[in-house]
Design a protein that fits this description.
The protein is α/β, with parallel strands linked by helices and 503 residues long. It contains 18 helices and 17 strands.
Length: 503
């Protein structure tokens, strides 16, 4: 899908014309071979301006796939004249294939705003004509902050609004350093360096050389990876009105989970242990688990994804976050009772394909307890169910967990934990995390979190839990009690202790 001709020194208006042409090429059949008129282009651009006016809305706009536009009544398209048609603008699953088109724009000439003129962006990646990734470059030896400051300046000058507001991810790159972050959106909002991320390898070692980022083993600025970053690994947090982008270790964890489920042979492979993700506090477990479940369902690798939590408080908290992460028209089903949970598992409705519940409710569903609905239970057993277990620590290793595995013998279990149990830290009679959930799929440890500033660092210092003076007194008293009066007289120091404690 690559267009090898680089678009150089194009104005934003020229990029919009390029976008409209690509839309026509992608929708020739729907448009009956008649290109969009000037007024139809205006209506299309108006829809974009209204629906994609923030980074969050832009993300939802892109993932909406189609946009309705009314054809002119006097259009040469006699079949569609005066009718509303739906134009395919972006397909998040059509990556490096289909009718997807990739282009690079260099030195885009931004629209003049206020007193600004001759502002040009360095490099922009266009997917189907739409700007989705923007890169600012600085020379060797120049601090990376110069590039992030440039992006911030352009945002404040409103150059990343309107059509250019579709940009989802910014990159700041020098030959020795590279940072990426999601579009913050708000005009005048200062960029928060807390959310500047470095791409890293599978061992969480940051990759700073630009050549590795575009063509190395863990490349991200290449196709299909860059397209996947936009389609799969950005999250529109509707509640916080914030666009989020996954960190590299989250991407690796999501990929590992999805690959594990994709490779699973349902109903012939009896291995229920899908593996576990070791992710420390502050590592974004909720977002990672949500995206993994969403991709599993979207790609048809399972019929149900059940997010399993061990506390009612987590049930409520996580369901709120999952709903905020869900695209428009989709939700994660909550369960107020075991009956509601059972009915949701039984349902074939696509809107009930993702469920969040507590292990207490889930463990109440056993063959014995649902004997009066056994035919329905047998139907549920035939579904491809993935359990994603949050906080997969000791509380998930007991009888309830065993009950769930027994009730759903064909299900696959994926665990998330920041405190895995290994042979060297297990208690007597306890199981390791691997014995319960299977192999480690991805790791983001406490040390990684402290290094990246996602977890506060700490310095362990031994603190006495007793009074030191009191201890010295006890030792001296013990020594005095062990001495006879005659022995104590032989040593002046011992005699002093003896007299003090025996007086």
């Amino acid at each position: 899908g690559w267009d090898k001709v680089v678009l150089v020194h194009k104005t934003v208006a020229e990029l919009v014309d390029n976008w409209c042409y690509i839309i026509f090429e992608r929708n020739r059949e729907v448009l009956h071979g008649v290109p969009l008129s000037a007024s139809e282009k205006d209506r299309l651009f108006e829809a974009l301006s209204n629906e994609a006016n923030t980074p969050v809305n832009a993300n939802l706009f892109l993932n909406g796939k189609t946009v309705p536009v009314t054809r002119d009544t006097d259009s040469d398209d006699k079949t569609g004249a005066g009718n509303e048609i739906y134009l395919n603008i972006f397909n998040p699953t059509e990556i490096a294939g289909g009718t997807t088109k990739y282009q690079i724009a260099r030195q885009v000439v931004f629209d003049e705003t206020h007193d600004t003129s001759d502002r040009r962006g360095d490099i922009t990646l266009l997917i189907n004509g739409m700007p989705v990734i923007h890169i600012e470059l600085k020379a060797s030896g120049v601090p990376i902050g110069e590039a992030t400051n440039q992006i911030e300046k352009y945002i404040k000058e409103q150059h990343f609004s309107g059509f250019m507001g579709l940009v989802q991810v910014f990159w700041a790159i020098t030959p020795e350093n590279a940072l990426y972050f999601s579009n913050p959106g708000e005009i005048g909002k200062q960029l928060n360096s807390t959310f500047f991320f470095r791409w890293a390898d599978l061992a969480n070692k940051p990759i700073t050389n630009w050549r590795e980022i575009i063509s190395g083993e863990q490349r991200i600025l290449s196709i299909p990876e860059a397209h996947q970053l936009i389609s799969y690994y950005t999250v529109a947090d509707k509640e916080k009105e914030t666009l989020k982008v996954c960190r590299s270790y989250q991407v690796y964890a999501i990929k590992a989970i999805v690959s594990r489920i994709k490779a699973h042979n349902w109903f012939t492979d009896k291995e229920q242990r899908g593996g576990f993700v070791w992710c420390t506090t502050g590592g974004g477990k909720t977002m990672t688990s949500y995206k993994a479940g969403q991709l599993i369902i979207d790609r048809g690798y399972a019929d149900k994804v059940v997010y399993l939590v061990d506390r009612v408080a987590l049930d409520s908290q996580s369901s709120k976050q999952y709903d905020s992460f869900s695209p428009n028209g989709r939700t994660v089903v909550t369960t107020s009772s075991t009956t509601v949970l059972f009915n949701s598992l039984k349902s074939d409705e696509s809107k009930k394909s993702m469920i969040i519940t507590s292990i207490h409710k889930m463990s109440n569903i056993t063959p014995e307890k649902v004997a009066d609905r056994y035919d329905e239970y047998e139907k549920i057993k035939k579904k491809r169910i993935v359990f994603i277990v949050d906080e997969a620590h000791r509380s998930q290793f007991g009888i309830m967990h065993q009950n769930v595995k027994r009730t759903f013998p064909s299900a696959v279990f994926i665990g998330f934990t920041g405190t895995p149990i290994f042979a060297d830290n297990m208690r007597e009679g306890e199981q390791t995390t691997e014995s319960v959930f299977g192999r480690t799929l991805a790791i983001y440890s406490l040390a990684d979190g402290i290094r990246d500033g996602n977890v506060l660092g700490f310095y362990p210092r031994g603190e006495s839990t007793f009074d030191e003076q009191e201890l010295r007194e006890k030792v001296a008293l013990k020594k005095a009690n062990a001495l006879s009066k005659d022995d104590a007289r032989k040593d002046p120091e011992q005699w002093k202790i003896y007299k003090h404690y025996m007086s």
